[in-house]
Write a structure and sequence with these properties.
Layout: E1 8-14, E2 17-26, E3 29-38, E4 47-53, H1 66-73, E5 78-82, H2 97-100, H3 105-126, E6 129-139, H4 141-153, E7 158-162, E8 187-193, H5 201-210, E9 215-220, H6 229-242
Parallel strand pairs: 4-5, 4-6, 6-7, 7-8, 8-9
Antiparallel strand pairs: 1-2, 2-3, 3-5
Helix pairs in contact: 3-4
Length: 243
Amino acid sequence: MNAPSSLWLREELNGDVREIAFSFQVHNESVPGLLILPRDVDSAEHLPLVLIQHPGMSSKDDYFVRDVAIAWAKRGWACAGIDAPLHGDRDTHDPMSLFRYRERYPEIAACFAREISATIDQLAANFPIDTARLGYVGYSLGSMLGVPAVAADGRFRVAAFCLVGEGGLAGSVSEPDAPVRTMTGVAVRVVAKLSDELISRAATEALYAAFPGEKDIVWLPGGHYEIGPDVIKAAGDWLKAHL
């Protein structure tokens, strides 16, 4: 499918995959993103779409998103990530402000949720994407923002939330109408670290307990900042089993 030039900024062929930088407007703010998909796609084929969301202080261009997206696109998936609010190439780059202004958490979470839904809509309108096969992977901040975003969108089939617990940007799980409790149709894997310095085991287990549908939890050795092949494999295996 052809896309409007105002949306797609750059396209490159990288071996077996196509790498496309994009940007579009949501509520008068630019949302920069990266899409990677197989180089050769049959015109009648529609691909699952996996959204991969970076941790704090990171961006869509870092290993956690771009390199993983390249590897997973070779499985036959379309993979995309956006710069979270205040990160990467956003109009306002100030990731540390999330620590200074915690009262903005509901606003930031709602903004990101709108952007994730808009990203799906934009990509599906211009590329051969099957919106019945949507997956989400987030690491740390990407999971904290991802939990309410996946709940709000309502179209995801599977999600892997890595290094996250209840509270903060992820929201509370104590209320019966908490967003996390609405994910009845999403198969959720929580990937946690045994020595996480930032997210307590109790917070992780509280979030996990609140997911209402198919779910499992994987505990891996190491601390919060050790996002390596073990975390990526745990997330990728879960998606592969459900997409």
